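To the wet lab folks,

You asked to see what we're planning to order before we commit. Fair enough. Below is the target structure as tokens, and below that is the sequence we designed to fit it. If anything looks off to you, flag it before the synthesis order goes out.
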């Protein structure tokens, strides 16, 4: 028992840290924000070290197979342990009216859920982990409760999320009813032995709807722009990366293990959803003048890119085999840095001007050159311009699609990226080529950049540039992370 608990120490440390922060907040009259940040950073570093140690133990199923700790789990744990402190540092000096200790604790609880989601291999554990991940995000969306738009976004997100969770739970129950097992491997064995085919596909459809909502796939994406716009911008950065990647990782578990016997027909549905998500997200983003809503639809499109990689399968002598799971790990890292960085610059502009409309970005390069340059790097990377990280992320997905003879979807991905260039470059044009209309504002000296926010922008910007140059190690790590034993 103790040996199994050791493998869950990263999740235990993060959740205990969240509870400790709540206790300190309850008994302290001071708003010790930096103390909270230092506590989170220290705890996450310890959790990351223990997580690395777990990688050397190989794939281990613990608690009667309810959780599997393997390279796949370890990889995503690292990502979530990195994202959480980045977002908290972004917010530490900026959200003055928000109880920061509460924000940090709720975010850590959500991160704990994400870490459990990527390792869960039993339906009951999956349901608990998904709720532990999701409910704190609903709370985070409404954290700036003095803003009407924030409360409205949280209510919409919660109501739609409750429906999606109910559908997902029904799909889980239906799957158990068909197979008689809650274990993902047990489900796969039962499906391979033969079951009611129509009922099985219905169960998978319900599960896919629930996960499609978490990932914001078309047509389950309606909550995304309102939630992204209404939430505090650091929270938007967190929810655009963490829950999305956790849900996609869970989808990989379902596809690679539980529903793997259904691959021939399931793949067609996934490819259609990927194409619809890429096209829909990019086309609607073109019409947006609010940059947060634009990035929301952009995030939907990127869900389509990642789903396209996941759905890739190649023919072998034994039939179709999923061959693109590694693209999620590779692209997920790229997406994390360029998306968090983009929202950090948006947050800087929002704090200076009180707006996230395109017009608020006018003259950014003249007033704050470093953030403007980083913004250009993030937008070009999201577009897929070489030699930035986003280019190689998309290149790996296209390569997987071409090797699987899915040339039509590769063409859709390229054309969707071309469309995205319009709205990404439009932000760069406003930042570098247009001057502020307010003459008094234009005459003011350059604004100072808060150290915390500047650090996040710089770190994510350097990572976006570096990952576009040094990619081989990450690619190999991604391939190792999805070995057959890892699933």
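Sequence we intend to order:
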């Amino acid at each position: 028992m103790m040996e199994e608990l050791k493998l869950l120490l990263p999740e235990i440390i993060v959740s205990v840290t969240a509870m400790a922060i709540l206790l300190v907040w309850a008994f302290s009259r001071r708003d010790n924000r930096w103390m909270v940040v230092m506590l989170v950073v220290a705890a996450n570093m310890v959790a990351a070290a223990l997580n690395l140690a777990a990688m050397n133990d190989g794939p281990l199923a613990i608690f009667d197979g309810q959780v599997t700790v393997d390279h796949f789990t370890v990889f995503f744990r690292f990502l979530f342990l990195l994202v959480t402190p980045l977002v908290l540092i972004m917010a530490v000096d900026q959200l003055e009216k928000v109880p920061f200790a509460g924000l940090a604790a709720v975010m850590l609880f959500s991160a704990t859920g994400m870490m459990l989601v990527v390792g869960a291999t039993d339906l009951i554990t999956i349901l608990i982990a998904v709720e532990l991940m999701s409910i704190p995000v609903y709370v985070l969306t409404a954290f700036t409760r003095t803003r009407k738009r924030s409360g409205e976004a949280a209510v919409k997100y919660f109501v739609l999320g409750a429906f999606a969770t109910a559908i997902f739970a029904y799909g889980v129950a239906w799957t158990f009813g068909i197979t008689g097992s809650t274990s993902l491997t047990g489900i796969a064995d039962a499906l391979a032995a033969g079951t009611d085919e129509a009922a099985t596909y219905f169960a998978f459809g319900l599960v896919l709807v629930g996960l499609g909502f978490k990932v914001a796939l078309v047509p389950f994406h309606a909550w995304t722009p309102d939630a992204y716009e209404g939430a505090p911008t650091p929270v938007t950065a967190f929810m655009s990366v963490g829950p999305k990647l956790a849900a996609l990782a869970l989808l990989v578990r379902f596809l690679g293990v539980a529903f793997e016997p259904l691959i021939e027909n399931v793949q067609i549905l996934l490819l259609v959803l990927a194409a619809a998500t890429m096209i829909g997200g990019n086309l609607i983003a073109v019409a947006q003048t609010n940059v947060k809503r634009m990035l929301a639809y952009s995030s939907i499109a990127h869900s389509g890119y990642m789903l396209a990689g996941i759905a890739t399968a190649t023919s072998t002598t034994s039939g179709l085999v999923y061959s693109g799971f590694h693209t999620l790990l590779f692209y997920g890292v790229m997406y994390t840095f360029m998306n968090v960085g983009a929202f950090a610059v948006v947050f800087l502009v929002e704090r200076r001007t009180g707006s996230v409309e395109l017009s608020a970005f006018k003259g950014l390069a003249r007033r704050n050159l470093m953030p403007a340059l980083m913004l250009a790097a993030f937008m070009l990377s999201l577009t897929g311009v070489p030699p930035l990280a986003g280019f190689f992320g998309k290149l790996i997905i296209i390569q997987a699609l071409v090797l699987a003879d899915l040339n039509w979807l590769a063409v859709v991905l390229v054309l969707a990226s071309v469309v995205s260039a319009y709205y990404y470059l439009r932000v760069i044009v406003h930042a570098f080529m247009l001057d502020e209309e307010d003459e008094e504002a234009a005459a003011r000296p350059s604004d100072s950049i808060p150290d915390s926010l500047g650090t996040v922008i710089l770190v994510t910007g350097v990572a976006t540039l570096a990952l576009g140059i040094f990619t081989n190690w990450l690619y190999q790590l991604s391939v190792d992370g999805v070995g057959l034993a890892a699933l």
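Structural context that might help your review: The longest helix spans residues 148-179. Residues 263-487 form one domain.

Thanks,
Computational group
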